[in-house]
Amino acid sequence: MPELQRLRPDHAPALLAFEEENRAFFAATVPDRGDDYFTRFAARHAALLAEQATGACHFHVLVAQDGEVLGRFNLMDAADGEAELGFRLAEKATGRGLATAAVRELFTLCTQTYALTKLRAGATLTNSASRAVLTRTGFVPTGEELVLSGERGLGYIRELEGL
After folding, report:
1. Is the pLDDT of residue 150 over 90?
2. DSSP assignment of 18-48
């Protein structure tokens, strides 16, 4: 079973491979990261780790037994007991409930490790898979229409108190 791990420096090669291998798949439902993301990956990874060290964000990767990264699960802009959830899963890992399980595991980390009581999320209208994961894990639509990198989307919220 894949393991959810807090992002570390040694994840960089497998994380870059994950992003490169799934670039076209991700671009079908979320805006492409652009070539600069890949050419400056090492600096970007170091910046994420520095940001994580401040406690403002908590980055995670879903890692297979062989060390391959199968997904990213990030808690961003953590403040006042709240954070924003963002995630992406490798194309070959979809349809097996891995994203749902990882999001549920994050709930435990949120309440027991990060002192978070509420998560926000957003998904484009075209990203039915992410919207399904959010719904299955107890997120409810806020009624707020979002624009996510130029695309229409919906906002979601999940209260974590009482878990």
Report:
1. no
2. HHHHTHHHHHTTS----HHHHHTHHHHHHHH
Rounded Cα gap, residues 142 and 126, in angstroms? 18
The answer to whether 66 and 78 have CB atoms below 8 angstroms apart is no
| Calpha distance 52→46 (Å, rounded) | 10
pLDDT digits (tens, 9 = 90+) for 20-36: 999 999 988 877 889 99
Q: Are 145 and 152 in contact (CB under 8 A)?
A: yes
Contact 7/52 with Cβ under 8 angstroms? Answer: yes
Please name the residue ranges forming H helices in 71-153: 98-112, 128-136
Which DSSP helix (H) or strand (E) runs through 114? none
pTM of the model: 0.94
Residues 140, 143, 148, 151, CA torsion sign: positive
